[in-house]
Specification:
One of its GO terms (biological process) is riboflavin biosynthetic process. It contains 12 helices and 12 strands. It is α/β, with parallel strands linked by helices. Helix 1 crosses helix 4. The N terminus is likely disordered. It binds adenosine-5'-diphosphate, riboflavin and magnesium ion.
Length: 380
């Protein structure tokens, strides 16, 4: 991910996208389409996600009707789809780091505009399910309030105008390619947070591409820094996963000298989708052996360019034997950094050892240490 350390540009307000940037709309849309397309004997394979991300609702509907060759008109599709979607709106979850970001900006008096390709009414319904969100936005602009949706600059120009700001003073945060194009066309500074994996190459016109909202550094843009990082780690809502240790790529100990105990990805598929890739840490429990500090990566391991998203926990302890088949329990309590690519195996290994040191030190802090005694880690 491009993470230049130099200060880029002083901005004084934020224009932020909603679907795919602050909330995981795609998850719910995918669930509905999977069932809906069955009716026509078709199977939703998620491939269309790539095309519909960032489109207006009308464009997205047209894409689906055309690509699946549905025997109905676009407005017929819409009149069936929208009631299904409305009924599920309360299930759309906020994305990791979204709540933290908008509350931080609100708390520091940074004006924020919500600028979305969806209609004003739809935006209002979606955010009504997230407590305190409406108050975080000084301005809301939907695509029905301007002549053209993104990639046209209209939505961002209107948002800047209503905030009384020059576009050059605005920071746009966007997950989609049309959204990034709209932001650049409007003359704003743009951070891209791609919502689909392995698509970074499509976002070259953005001023910065980050992996998830956890990686935003507002101070790079002249905005107040987050104050919740502790000793190079970011506390997260703890998540618990567990299962029997299975064989992985057989690469950890052999190639890196760093064994990572793999769990079956099927057992925690939802968690895998929900959590951004990156390096995390926490506690690991093995019923017969005890509780150990743990540092792990979650993602596609860019250095090896894996096809599958995996979790790779390294238990920070020297074991005299392997423990395949044993029940491994993890409580993940903090975040360290995004996954990265490296120019050599040595530099990847050195970075993982650095992560180990960060995790080992952080886990002694009371706020992280307290999870060590959680019975989840060792109960059968
Ligand atoms: P695989 O690709 O099968 O996961 P690895 O080379 O990554 O192979 O080794 C992981 C295995 O090594 C684990 O499943 C576990 O049985 C064993 N192991 C030994 N020490 C550790 C450790 N400190 N952390 C994680 N796994 C370890
Ligand atoms: N792989 C990468 O390609 N990039 C990384 O930034 C990266 N960071 C890691 C950090 C930790 C703490 C651990 C345990 C592993 C990391 N790996 C990373 C994953 C490593 O490639 C993986 O464990 C091996 O491929 C074994 O399957
Ligand atoms: Mg492994």
């Amino acid at each position: 991910m491009s993470m230049s350390n130099s200060l880029k540009k002083l901005t004084s307000c934020v224009l932020i996208d909603l679907d795919g940037t602050l909330i995981n709309t795609d998850g719910v849309v995918g669930d509905i389409l999977r069932k809906y397309l069955c009716k026509y004997g078709k199977q939703w394979d998620g491939r269309e996600s790539l095309k519909i991300v960032g489109q207006t609702p009308l464009e997205a509907a047209t894409t689906i009707v055309e690509d699946y060759g549905l025997p109905c008109k676009v407005d017929e599709f819409n009149s069936e789809f929208y009631p299904l979607f409305s009924a599920q709106m309360d299930k759309i979850k906020s994305l990791p780091g979204a709540n933290r970001l908008i509350r931080h900006l609100k708390c520091h008096g940074v004006p924020v505009a919500l600028a979305s390709n969806s209609s004003r009414a739809n935006i209002e319904s979606k955010i009504s399910h997230h407590e305190g969100w409406k108050e975080c936005f000084s301005v809301i602009v939907g695509s029905d309030e301007v002549s053209k949706g993104k990639p046209s600059p209209d939505i961002f120009l209107e948002a800047a105008k209503r905030l009384n700001k020059d576009p050059a003073d605005c920071l746009v945060i966007e997950d989609s390619v049309p959204g990034v194009m709209a932001g650049k066309a409007a003359g704003t500074n743009v951070i891209a947070v791609p919502s689909l994996p392995k698509q970074t190459h499509l976002y070259t016109s953005a001023d910065e591409v980050i992996n998830s909202l956890l990686d935003i550094r507002p101070e790079k843009w002249g905005l107040p820094p987050f104050q919740d990082w502790i000793e190079n780690t970011l506390p997260i809502d703890p998540w618990h996963i567990g299962g029997p240790v299975i064989k992985g790529f057989g690469r950890g100990s052999k190639v890196l000298g760093i064994p990572t105990a793999n769990l079956s990805t099927k057992d925690y598929a939802d968690e895998l989708v929900e959590h951004p890739s990156g390096v995390y840490f926490g506690w690991a429990g093995l019923a017969k052996r005890g509780v150990f500090k743990m540092v792990m990566s979650i993602g596609w391991n860019p250095y090896f360019n894996n096809k599958e998203k995996t979790i790779e926990p390294w238990l920070l302890h020297d074991f005299t034997e392997d423990f395949y088949g044993e029940e491994l329990r993890l409580i993940i309590v903090g975040y360290i950094r995004p996954e990265a690519n490296f120019s050599s195996l040595e530099s990847l290994i050195a970075k993982i050892h650095e992560d180990r040191e960060v995790a080992e030190k952080a886990l002694d802090l009371p706020s992280y240490a307290k999870f060590k005694d959680d019975p989840y880690l060792t109960k059968g």
